[in-house]
Amino acid sequence: MPVDNYLGVPLHRPKVAFFEFTACEGCQLQILNNEATLLDFLSLVEVVAFREAMTERSDDYEIAFVEGSITRADEAKRLKEIRKKAKVLVAMGSCACFGGVNQLKNRFNNNKWVKEQVYGKFPVESEEARPLEDVVTVDLNIYGCPIKKEEVEKIVTNLVLGKSVSHPKYPVCMECMANENICLYKMGEPCLGPVTRAGCDAWCPGSRFGCWGCRGPADAANVEQIISIMEEHKFSADTIIDRLECFGGFKKFAGELKKRTAKSKSKKKRAAK
Amino acid sequence: MKISCDIKVKHLSRVEGHGNIHIKIKGGRVTEAQWEVVETPRFFEAMLVGKKWDNAPWICGRICGICSIGHTLASIRAVENAFGIVPSEQTRKLRLLLKHMETLQSHVLHLYFLAAPDFLNTGSVFPLIKSHPDVVARAARIKLLANDACDIIGGRRMHPTTTVVGGFTMLPDRCKLESLKRRLEEAVTDLHRTAELFRSFPVPDFVRETEFVSLRGNGEYPFIGGDLVSTDGVRMKEHDYKKMTNEYTVARSTAKWARLSRESFAVGALARLNNNFAFLHPAARELSESFGLRPVNHNPFMNNIAQLVECVHVTLESIAMINEFLDNEWDEPRQAVKHKKGKGVSAVEVPRGILYHCYEFDSAGKIVRSDCVIPTGQNHANIQHDLTELAAQSASMGRKDAEIELLAEMLVRSYDPCISCSVH
Amino acid sequence: MIFRLINKRELRELFDVLAENRIIGPVQKGTSHDGKALYAFEPVFDFDDLKLDYTSTARPAKRYFLPSHETLCTFSVHENGWEKTVDFNIHEPHVFFGMHACDINALDKLDKVLLESNFPTPYYAAKRKNMFIIGVECTPQPSCFCRSMGTDSAFHGFDMFLTDLGDSYFVEVQSATAFNFLKNIRTREPKEKDHARYMKVVADKNSMFTTSVDTTDLAKILDMEFQSDVWKYWGDRCLSCGTCASVCPTCYCYGVEESVDIDLKGAKKKKHLYSCNLIDFAEVAGGHNFRPESHSRLKYRYYHKHRGFMEEFEESLCVGCGRCSEACLAKITVPEVIASVRSGVKPKGKKGRHGK
Amino acid sequence: MENKLPFVDVLKDIHGYQRKADLGSFEYSHKAEITNVYPLTSNEKLYQIQIVDPDMRRRFTFQPGQFVMLEVPGVGEAPFSISSSPIRHGDIELCIRNVGNLTNFLARVERGVQVGITGPFGTSFPLKEMMGQNIFLIAGGLGIAPLRSPILSVLENRSRYANVDIIYGARQPSELLFTYQYDMWRKFDISLDIIVEKPDAQWKGPVGLSTDILRKKLAEPDGSLSNNTYAIVCGPPVMFKFVCNMLTEAGIPMQKMFVSLERRMHCGRGKCCRCNVGSTYTCLKGPVFDYWSVMNLKEAI
Ligand SMILES: Cc1cc2nc3c(=O)[nH]c(=O)nc-3n(C[C@H](O)[C@H](O)[C@H](O)COP(=O)(O)OP(=O)(O)OC[C@H]3O[C@@H](n4cnc5c(N)ncnc54)[C@H](O)[C@@H]3O)c2cc1C
Ligand code: SF4
Ligand code: SF4
Ligand code: SF4
Question: Strand, helix or coil at C67?
């Protein structure tokens, strides 16, 4: 018997559906990767569509968890239909929230070249990779590449209880320090932890692997400052840009840094002449 | 009786990614039997251009959520091959252990969550929670173990973090490895139960003469690197992978297709087993024979059984490897990396078959060109030809619509296709 | 206080005597990219792992008495009702083998607010009362300024304190427990010349400090310079990442979060150490933030440590351990901030936000 | 095992209601039942909450102006001013506006639900000192919630106070709280002025800000505020800043004006530092401060 109230407040078991667009489907898999708590998780909600795991599907849902970014007109159309049906639309994972690694191809500003690079003359339809919010209104973001299952569980539990859902506003360093990790800068590695939104429990720094900012900027992230800190630590502009542009959350800052670097390069060249 | 039917499966479920099946039979004649791949491409090969070498494994792991560890390792090895880095024996073993745990995780996911519902007449694993709680609990137990193992060794179960060019950022915790070993030993029993379960499922009787491509083991069942072979007698070196895959584009697919000696070939657990039966762990070989699975088996549905056999193989081999680790002193986890101009190819056996990554670097260590050939991509043509044959057989045998539809779906699923991965 | 002298080799004996208990001490946890040893307080099982000549640990031993995450209580929830279970999260005493004076002083300061004021907190008390502390004399590091804060030596808050005299340790014995433990090993009464050796070691140590902070009238100056532009300069550099508070042995601010278990049959109330530099530290319902700018939060941290605590307890809430200076990626250091607030002059040659 | 250190149990068992100096008082909460919920407006409800144990209920005493921490297990804990009269002991009323996580959950709770109450915490309005003097209460919006306790306390001892004036301002008539009690307050010889910013069709009273009324009152011939007047001001920061300035100009000494500050609080016990103003704990030294202290607190307004 699933519990039907919490302290006398009736619980609402929402009908949920999972959808994916341009993505690796890893975020959905993370949900199935919940082995230990999967059964409790499933009794919180009623899954009505989850193509990666089930054949039955229904269009009657309240919460749509959407993975992936939008790279084709048919995807945009389908997403809009989902938006119409869903009361709550959740962007799940970095691709859905920021474009994810998919948006790396946008940096060439040359879709034709991109297509030819992979398919030669063979015609393929594909546009710029866009986050969901460029197409529809998104009610809730679940950050991360991949998403952290503990976080999804917490969010869904809160939705069921009618509790508010909020993300940490502070950066990853807080969690990294709480876990007593050695700061990667001490070991000569770059890390975006000081500006990236926490919530992953410092997943990467915990394995002595610097953060790449998959969860996007924290509230009040001082990105300019971390850029100059990385420069002081002698990390090349390429290294800094690689991190900032990887998942799309820091796109704006990566763009600015690129422009700045290009300018100083051309200045140097001119000076050399 | 001459049958007619028109089957359209849009976005086949319980597979990774988006694919459609169309079968049209008119008066007992197959007019259409199509496997369509409609997944949106992501253009990884283009997005890597201009990126520094250290980005490659991190980004390429994202080609696929299910086999992200395989992609990461393939990518790392391609970079190492290009720079002339030879991993230490410790690194090589630890990578293999990590790989094994991914194989176990992925195969169990496919066997229980994606394939089994077809045999138990449900649309998903969810109703089984009520009807077959012990089965689901067992699946969850093995999967959890394998996933935890990936966390311990790779930093996390998906998009690993400790695996880098040159080795590992850090080594697993000794105590955790020990408890992992104990859990693996317990898992052997669970795998035997799994075998009993699958023994009770009727494997559709369908055979189509096929060429099977995989790595060729050199004394051990192959997973990372080695020569490329096919059951038709082709044998090649890793760097000649393009001659092994011969990729081409097809109108109804955003994934590229492949061919070798015939119009199509198959990769995956069955292919590996067909080419390397002798290298299987004896217990795994014995299990295989008990299912009547011996090389060269041409029934694609037997891929599920081959997966099961591999589960046993990787579990037993992992236990032995952990024992060896625990007995030895550990070295530095990581060696320094010096980039240089050049090209590197790597072939790795991921759960769904042989995977190739190839990068060309300039003197600054930036990628000039990259190429990834995904197992499911190599399987697409074979799926298509199997489907045509299955439709023809069904037409001549007078199978019912629903039966054909289920069989067709099961056929595609037995390849455990990873479609979004194939359209990376 | 009772003094003893023990031969260096005897220390291993003492360790073995204490080993029936859980021992926490400085061990090497890694190596920095420039080859320096990185130390941390970890459980020690082998005397050889204990590095009593450690420079300084990047983190204090705080997690053993003020863990960054702590469950305050759990609830079991049933129809319309619930039961609450409180656990102070400690079940055995810990031996702290090798704490520097600054860290011992930090504990004394925490005691003031967490034990001796209104509403003493049992979570801290339970751990604090179960600490057996062996102090050890340190070597001043470039970022240390404990001497300026009056915390370079400890007068209480430990059981015994070791000073390395080369071949032996000079031991200050403060608790009866320590005295009893020492009975297990060979010790001797120090002689006049040992006192002289001890005084020399201490004097040598005192000559090694390279960093200092002028704390004269600091509380008043902070009040007067509340509107100083210098704060903005530091605020622009600050990453608002909370690292300084995380590594500080005396920072104790926290947040509480409650969560319902996924099976909806239980709940937890968790405390996690926070930092006043984090953006939402002073945000209230409705979204109003009392300290929206990073400089106002940074200023608050200094204000609380060097003025508020002073007002309340006649001392500053900083022991000058220099950990925050070492950990801060933006290179915001207490000596520099205080000097600049004092003089009203921003430091030269360092970039703030936008390179200004 | 002779070298094993003895384990010190700081607290063998928690003995119910404790003094502030006892370790056992820290995480001790009274189990209390929500006995009634009255919707006051669309955003605020009045909760009657009774400590379950009758003995504890009797021993629970508080002063007007103090607050409790109300806890709903798993949902959250937050500070709320007690809105009822102190003579009712542990049978308290809280007026709560739904603004966030905990308060939105509370808005859905029905009577009979058990919650946890800790406290009372903080400082109070010095009603004893005010005896024999005039009291001027000025409330804006939800600020009436903490003022209701002193008002009720004054009503119960009406003869001990000289003139009592209340000015209460709200944005619109539908947001006025405790409307059902205004007549009673007036019957107790209290001058009550109510003003709204945005009137609706039925509204007959004055329109504007509470400062408008205050200005008028201060201009009245007998409106001069001599030494024997105390003021209690509660409302949004902008409002109390203006009001207190006007009152200061009218001659009320700063230390006879009291305000109640709102800050973020996670413990209510002077530990979490979240409520600090400058470096003063609002939960210990406040929430009720005299205006002189507020003026001397950095970053208070
Ligand atoms: C002394 C005092 C007396 C109060 N009296 C009343 C009253 O009588 N009636 C009334 O309706 N409200 C009163 N409040 C305000 C009340 O505490 C907040 O409305 C309440 O905390 C909101 O909690 P929430 O969980 O619903 O909101 P949340 O969802 O937690 O939060 C909304 C915002 O409030 C902040 N917040 C979180 N926890 C707290 C907290 N414990 N305290 C303050 N802010 C927090 C968050 O940063 C967030 O921005 C009083 C506050 C104080 C300090
Ligand atoms: S490793 Fe990264 S996240 Fe951790 S403290 Fe250092 S900068 Fe912050
Ligand atoms: S550490 Fe950074 S990159 Fe890693 S999961 Fe967290 S936010 Fe993402
Ligand atoms: S403020 Fe800095 S120097 Fe002072 S005690 Fe804390 S960490 Fe040490």
Answer: coil
Class of domain D10-121 (CATH, top level): mainly beta
Q: Are A92 and A27 in contact (CB under 8 A)?
A: yes
> Does residue D96 line the site of ligand 1, with CB under 6 A?
yes
* Lowest mean pLDDT across A245-259, B116-130, C252-266, D57-71: B116-130
Residue B82, H or E segment: helix B68-83
Tell me if A157 and C242 make a contact (CB, 8 A cut-off): no
Are C17 and D3 inside 8 Å of each other by CB?
yes
CA distance B49 to B204: 45
Distance between CA C260 and CA C268 in Å, rounded? 6
Question: Smallest Cα–Cα separation from C14: which of C27, C23, C26, C2?
Answer: C23
Tokens (6 digits) for B410: 């099961």
Residue B404 CA to residue B23 CA, distance in Å, equals: 9
Q: How far apart are CA D281 and CA C308, in angstroms?
A: 10
Tell which atom from ligand 2 comes closest to the C-alpha of A176: 4
CATH 3.40.50.80 range(s) for chain D read 134-260
A29 touches chain D (CB under 8 A): no
Q: Which residue has the tokens 């989902």?
A: A82
Q: What is the mean pLDDT of residues C273-297?
A: 88
CA triple B350-B356-B362, angle to 5 deg: 140
Longest dimension (CA), chain D: 85
The class that CATH gives domain D134-260 is: alpha beta
| Token pair in block for residue C350 | 């360092």
Residues of chain D with CATH 2.40.30.10: 10-121
**Cα–Cα distance between C95 and D114 in angstroms, integer?**
42
> Quick one: DSSP state of residue B173?
P
Q: Which residue of C has its CA nearest to D284?
A: C118
Complex ipTM more than 0.85, yes or no: yes
* Under 8 Å between Cβ of B417 and B15: yes
Render each residue's pLDDT in chain A as its tens digit; 273 residues: 567 889 888 888 899 999 989 988 899 888 888 788 888 888 889 888 887 677 777 788 999 999 999 998 999 999 999 999 999 999 999 999 999 999 998 998 888 878 887 777 777 777 889 999 999 999 999 999 999 988 999 999 999 998 888 899 999 999 999 999 999 999 999 999 999 999 999 999 999 999 999 999 999 899 999 999 999 999 999 999 999 999 999 999 999 999 988 888 888 777 776
pLDDT digit string, tens, across residues D103-156? 999 999 989 999 999 989 999 999 898 888 889 899 998 999 999 999 999 999
The residue of B62, B129, B366 whose CB has the most chain A CBs within 10 angstroms, and thus the best one to mutate to test that interface, is B62
Name the token pair of C18: 């204490």
User: What letters, b where the CB count within 10 A reaches 16 and e where it falls short, cover A190-213?
Assistant: bbbbbbbbbbbebbbbbbbbbbbb
The ligand 4 atom nearest the CA atom of C248? 7
Pocket test for ligand 3, best of A214, A243, A245 (most atoms within 8 A of CB): A214
- pTM, two decimals, is 0.91
* Homologous superfamily of the A5-161 domain (CATH): NADH:ubiquinone oxidoreductase-like, 20kDa subunit (3.40.50.700)
Domains defined for chain B, CATH in brackets: 44-380 (1.10.645.10)
The 10s digit of each residue's pLDDT in B286-332 is 999 999 999 999 999 999 999 999 999 999 999 999 999 999 889 88
